[in-house]
Design goal:
Layout: H1 13-23, E1 29-37, E2 41-48, E3 53-59, H2 65-83, H3 88-92, E4 100-103, E5 111-116, E6 121-122, H4 132-146, H5 166-175, H6 182-197, E7 206-208, E8 211-213, E9 216-218, E10 227-230, E11 233-237, E12 244-246, H7 253-271, H8 277-300, H9 304-319
Length: about 325
């Protein structure tokens, strides 16, 4: 299986310090720490002598440089649209505000972005009790606002249905064979095998109290690692690189993977959503795939924290009886 997160030019803190000295000498960081690396970006924390802390985001590959610039433009437009809303500033100040995106013509880094560190810790570091429902409510309130904004023109056509890479997730499970508890591995294998055979597809639509919402502007990568919390409060939503137009249900997947049905129900209530049974099934299957993908990434990146978080989410699903029931096995229809 491909490793799309592979970094062809790994960055050390000393290399990033030299890069900052050259591109942003006025920052004068007295300390530099690595925060982590995702699929597409490496992230560092620069602390200045006066205690200010700045997030430094650096693309892993040249192809991500343009996405970083687009993210800056999107965030600027989102900030402007939020400022025009009543209480919008409450949400704007909890989103990254890029101060600079700087470009470099030399390897290993082709660009870097700088923004003030947002408070809080990632949702993956927050126990699901006692705040799951409060956090779900807060996220639902956020998404009810974000999903009405238009920082980019909507597409001429609605996104097509997609299969969420179920075949790839099944291959990921094969590569983790023997590393997961037997009962969990068997439950996941049955679920993914039958979902692949049934050619399960998703559209991310969500039933609201006043009709169905099929397409809106979404974050599109709202895993728990991109949700910052302070107790029951959401203190930030980060990493908007993948943001764009899509089905609103997509932005609830990570919350369900972390907090299960209770957190999702609270979020849907705050959002004024009334998901259908098929939409609940989609949410649970996609949330399960998210957790499995996180565990796979953690095992092979390697990233011990991601491995622990992914496996812990899968354990919770199994123990709570919330692993989705496999769809009807219709393999005979597709021989």
């Amino acid at each position: 299986m491909d490793r799309p997160w592979a970094n062809p030019n790994p960055l050390s803190t000393s290399t990033v310090a030299q890069l900052l000295d050259r591109l942003l000498p006025e920052l004068k960081a007295s300390q530099l720490d690595e925060l982590g690396a995702g699929w597409d970006f490496c992230t560092f924390l620069a602390t200045t002598a006066d205690g200010q802390r700045w997030v430094i985001r650096i693309p892993k590959r040249p192809g991500e440089v343009s996405r970083l610039a687009r993210e800056q433009r999107l965030l600027q437009r989102l900030h402007e649209q939020l400022d025009a809303l009543q209480d919008g500033a409450h949400y704007r100040t909890r989103m990254p505000a890029y101060r600079q995106v700087l470009y470099d013509n030399t390897a290993p880094a082709l660009a870097l972005a700088v923004y003030p560190l947002l408070p809080g810790r990632t949702l993956t570091q927050q126990p699901t009790t006692p705040h799951a429902e409060a956090i779900g409510t807060a996220l639902g309130q956020w998404l009810a606002i974000i999903h009405k904004l238009t920082p980019e023109p909507p597409p001429a056509k609605l996104p097509h249905r997609f299969n969420a890479d179920l075949v790839e997730h099944r291959q990921a499970l094969r590569e983790l064979r023997g590393l997961l508890p037997t009962a969990l591995e068997q439950a996941l294998d049955q679920l993914l095998r039958q979902a692949v055979n049934a050619r399960t597809a998703f559209d991310g639509a969500l039933q609201l109290t006043d009709g169905e919402r099929r397409c809106c502007f979404i974050h599109d990568d709202l895993g728990p690692e991109h949700i910052l919390v302070n107790g029951p409060e959401i203190s930030g939503l980060i990493d908007w690189t993948d943001a764009g137009w899509g089905g609103p249900l997509t932005d609830f997947v990570g919350l369900w993977a972390w907090g299960g049905d209770a957190a999702a129900r609270a979020a849907f209530s705050a959002y004024n959503a009334r998901p259908t049974e098929s939409q609940w099934s989609e949410l649970r299957l996609r949330g399960t795939c998210y957790a499995l993908g996180l565990a796979h990434f953690g095992q092979f990146a390697p990233d011990s924290r991601a491995w622990h978080d992914g496996v812990q989410m899968l354990h919770r699903m199994l123990q709570a009886g919330q692993l989705p029931a496999p769809p009807p096995d219709s393999s005979a229809d597709h021989r």
